[in-house]
């Protein structure tokens, strides 16, 4: 629908939905920006992306960060009800949402696939769990979602309507039925199959197989098994809360707009209202994904805990590294004459010739899988 034709139509009253989006996106932007900046900083500065899982999680954090920094445009639009930024930024903002949602689905799928290979087929498919393979797979995913965002940008053009004797420019809404039939609906079907159903099926299958494998093991659960189960639960929760409701409602609404399903205007408006709410749930994934990094990545969690104490996680050794600054040299504790000296099993003293070398303090319990 062109802006010239739409200018003769009165603007629909979406003020209630705009207020809901304004509050929701403001909260998501505040939390998402802080959490994802912290995640990217820890991944790049301390963890160095040396494990397969950290590579997938880093790319997931990049996707979330790109969506988060685009939210101020949406917040401004929903605060005033008018889009002043032009067609290009409307297209970019609409595409970034799709890139984030389907990119998140695919990167979460990769994380689950890596755990599936590590636990179910640890020897047969171990060559797939190499950093080079992970980087190549992430590159393929980025290329696919960026190519898929091009037609999405084509349909996210600004529209216009008439309100209080002037034309109002809109974004993210007022798509015509013809546009749904010719452009939007085929894109929705393709995105649903490749970007949602495929990752959902993969995550569900891998989770079931991993649970079966862990249940077959005898004895109490190890630290690695507990962390794996925790990660699978978090991934499934993110899919159930963020992606499943939105994609189901989007498919139903698309079929209604394309007249695949014939229904009453009241029912169509009700489904549209549900879509408004589920869009916010889908956007929440950029604030929930950091839960995966914190609760399921040993190095990430320990780095975050020890930064305030001047300590960092050594991703190569699986140790906590204490940083020594200033001109103070490290000295071993003196033992009084005659006192019984116990071996110190938790630390390794630096060499005498290197007084400023950092000391390595090993965890009391060995890390069974530092990639998780």
Automatic annotation (TrEMBL):
PROSITE patterns: G_PROTEIN_RECEP_F1_1, G_PROTEIN_RECEP_F1_2. It is a multi-pass membrane protein. The gene is LPAR5. Belongs to the G-protein coupled receptor 1 family. Its main location: membrane. It comes from the Eukaryota. One of its GO terms (cellular component) is plasma membrane. InterPro entries: GPCR_Rhodpsn (IPR000276), GPCR_Rhodpsn_7TM (IPR017452). This is Lysophosphatidic acid receptor 5. The keyword Chloroplast does not apply. One of its GO terms (biological process) is behavioral response to pain. One of its GO terms (molecular function) is G protein-coupled receptor activity. It is found in: Cell membrane. Residues 35-293 form the G-protein coupled receptors family 1 profile domain. It holds the Pfam family 7tm_1. The chain crosses the membrane at residues 22-44, 56-79, 99-121, 133-153, 184-211, 232-254, 274-295. Keywords: Cell membrane, Disulfide bond, G-protein coupled receptor, Glycoprotein, Membrane, Receptor, Transducer, Transmembrane, Transmembrane helix.
